[in-house]
Amino acid sequence: MTVVVTGDGMRAQSGLTSSAAGRRGPGRRRARTGLALVTAGLVGLVVTGGPAFAGLMGGGTASPGPSGAAVTVPAPAPAASSKAPQAQQRTQPSNATPSSADPAGSKSPAGSTGPAGSTGPAGNKSGTGPAGGAASGHVPLDADGNPADAVVDDATAAGPVAEPGPAPGAPSGDAGAGDPTSAGSSADPSGGAAPSGEPTGTEPAATNPAGGGPSDGDATGTEPADAEPAGDAGVDVNTAGVMAAIQAPAGVVVVPVPGGLRVAWTHDGAGVDHYVATAYDQQGSVAGSCLGAAAGTGTCEIRVGVAADGSYTVKVVAYGGAGASDPSAPATSGVVVAGPPAPPTGVHATVTSATSVRVGWTRQATPAAGVDRYVVTAVQDASKTCATGDGATTWCPVTGLEPGTAYTFRVVAQGAGGDSAPSAASAPVVAGGPGAQSTDIPEPVNLVVTPGDQKLLVEWRAPWDPDHAVGGYTVHVEEEPGRDCVTTHPTCTIEGLANGTSYTMSVRSDGAVSRESGWVTATGTPSVAPGEPTAVTAEAKIEAITVSWIAGAPGTGVARFQALATAPGGDHGVCETVTGDSCTISGLKWGDTYSVTVMAIGRHGRNSAWSEPAKVAVPHEVTVPADLPAGIGHFGGSSGDEVAPGELFTVTGSGFAPHSTVKVAVYSTPIVLATTMTDGAGTFSAEVSVPEAVKGGPHTLVAAGVDTGGEPRFLTMAVTVAVEYEATAFGDAGGSVLAVTGDPVGRTAGAGAALVIAGMLLVGASRRFKH
C-alpha cells in the first residue's frame, strides 16, 4: 500500500478503495485486542506458573508471599532433629534478605508486575522498579517482535538447589535469565543487577548484609553460599524473645540403698526450677519418682514404689521457665535391697547363774524373713555377747560374766537390709546376786494383753520346760499390786480396773520347788468399744466412692473411722478419717461393683463391729470433655511449648489421686494421645505424640484425671504444632514449613489462561473477517 500526503493535509491512497479500508478496520481492531489479551494472559501465566512449575520439577516448593508473589522454598533435607519442620521454619527467615516491597523476604520472580523501575547498574534491560518486578505493562519481545518466553528465576538464598545458569554469552544482568542477581532477587532488595561480567553458575548468590548482590569476584559453583544476617540487628524474627531450651541432665548414676534408690546427676542449673527423677520397671511402667526441688540439686532418693529384689531404669528431666528438658540418658540400677529391720523392744535380763543371764526381747513388726538373727551385747563389756540362729527366736543366754558385776544389755536385729539401730538398754542385773539359781526357770513367752470393759485379759504361752521346773505363774499389776493373779494356767483376767487408764502387766514363771524366772511385761488399757456405725451410704465418683455414715456410741473414745470397699474379684480400697462422718476411697476400678462397710476404731484398742454393708456402687470412668475444660493447673513436657507432628515427647504432672487414671488429650477437637496411671504420690509421666492429622498452629494439651475426692481434675499445657505447607502449581497445600499468606496463585493462572484463549479466538476471528 502507498500513502501520499498532500499539501492540505489530505492523503491519497493508491491500490485501495474506500470500501476495502472500511472492511479492514474492524479486523485490525479485533486482532489488536486479541494480541493484547494473549499478552496479558501470558504475563499472568508467567507470574504464577513459573515458580510453581519450578517447584514441581524439584528445584523448590513455592508458596504465596504476603504480596501475592511466589516465595521459593528449598526442598527440605533430612533433619537431624526429631522436630525437622520446626527447625526449618526457624531457620528460613535468616537466609533471605527482606526487600523493600516484601518485608517477609519474599522473592518476586522475573516478569512480575510492579512499579516502573530504572535501568540496572550494568546497563542491562532489567525493567525493574524498587520491588524488583517488571515495569507495568512491559513484556520482553524476541527478535521477531513476539512475546519472549519468560523464565522464572528459581534461585534461592536459602537452600543448596542447583539452578541452570544463563546461556553462554548472555548478559549476567538480564532479567529472568536464571542469574541469582536478576531483578526481584532476594539477594538485592534494590532490584539492581549484579556487576557486569561476573561469573555465573549454579550456586545461589550469597546474601550481602547491606542488601546488595554478590561482591565482585565471587565464584559460583554447586554449593550454597553462606547467608549473612539481614539488617543491622541480625535477629531471627521467629526466635526473638524465646527462652533458650533447657539442656538435659547428664551423668546420671543410680545406686541401690536400703529400701530405695539414690539418684545423682550433673547439670549447670541454668533456667531450672526443679528436677524429677523417674524410675521405670522392667516392663517400662513408672514405678516411682523423686524431686530435686532446687536448681542445681544433683541428687534425690526414690523411696516409694520401688520393691526389694527389683532393678530399675531411671531418667532425669529438668523443669524451668522454658518448659522441660529432654529426658536424660537412661541409667540402670542394681537390685534394690530391703531396708533394715526395726530395733527390738522390751529388752530384759534374768540372772540364771553366778556367771550367766538370759536376755529376752519383743520382736517388732518386721517380718521374720526380714530378720536373719538377733545379737545381744553387754553395754559394760562388748565381749559378753550372744546371738540367735534365726529371726524368730527372742532370747539367748550370755555367759562368762563376772560375779557381783552389774550388767545392762542391748539387742540389734540383723537382716538383708542391714542392721537395726540398737535397742534401748535393759534394766541392770547383777550376775551371781540374790536372783542367781542353779537351775534355769524359763520365762513365759508370747505375752498378750487384751482390753475389756474395766478389765484386762492377760495371756501367754507356757515356756519350754524339759526339767519340769515351772510350777505356776504370777501376774503382777504394776499400778495396783492388790489385783495380782496367781495361776497354773497361761491366762488370767484382771478386773475392777478403770476404763481409759493404762496398766502394766508383768508375768513370771514360778519354780516347782523354789525360785522363779524373770518378769516379762506388756501394757493394756481397759475401755468400752465404740458403737457400730449405721446408715452407711456409698456415692460413686470417678474411680472412687465417697462413703458416709452415722457414728454410733463413742465408748471410751474413737481414734478414727475406717471404710472398706470390696469388689467380687477381690479388688478393694480403704479410706480413714479421724473426724467427720465421710471419706473417699480412691484408686478403684471403674465399672466394678463394690460393697462398702464402716468400722469405728477405738482409742484404747477396742473396735466396733463392721457396719451393715451399704448398697453397692460402681465407680465412673475418667473421661475427656468434648469442649476444652478450664484447667486448675499446668503440666510440662520434654519438648517445651513447640512440637512437630509425630514427634515423641514426655509429659509429666501431679496432684491427682494415687494409683488413678490420667488421659492426655490434644484440643480443639479432643484426641486422646495416651492413658496412664499415677504413682503412689499422684504423679504421672507419659510419652505422647501429636498426630500428623492435627492442624498446625496453637493447641492445648489436657491431662484429665481425678483428685483425691473423686472429682474431675484437669491440667493444661499450651503448645504450638509446627505448620506443614507445600505449594503446588495452583497454590494447593503440601509439605513445606512456610506459613501461607496472600491469595492462591490458581485464580491468577486461570485468568491468564482464559485471556490467552480469548485473545486467540479474537485473532482467528479477525483473520476470517479479513478473508
Describe this structure in words.
By secondary structure, the chain is mainly β. The protein is built from 3 helices and 44 strands. The strands form 14 sheets. Strands 9, 10, 12, 13 and 14 form a 5-stranded antiparallel sheet that branches. A 5-stranded mixed sheet has the order 38-44-43-40-41, with no helix packed on it. A 4-stranded antiparallel sheet has the order 18-17-21-22, with no helix packed on it. Helix 1 runs antiparallel to helix 3. The protein is elongated and about 150 Å long. The N terminus is likely disordered.
β-strand amount = 25-35%
Number of helices: 3
Rg for CA atoms = 46 Å
Shape: elongated
Mean pLDDT reading: 72
Number of strands: 44
Largest sheet: 5 strands, antiparallel
- Portion of residues within helices: under 10%
Structural key phrases:
about 775 residues; mainly beta; five-stranded antiparallel beta sheet; five-stranded mixed beta sheet; 3 helices; about 10% helix; disordered N terminus
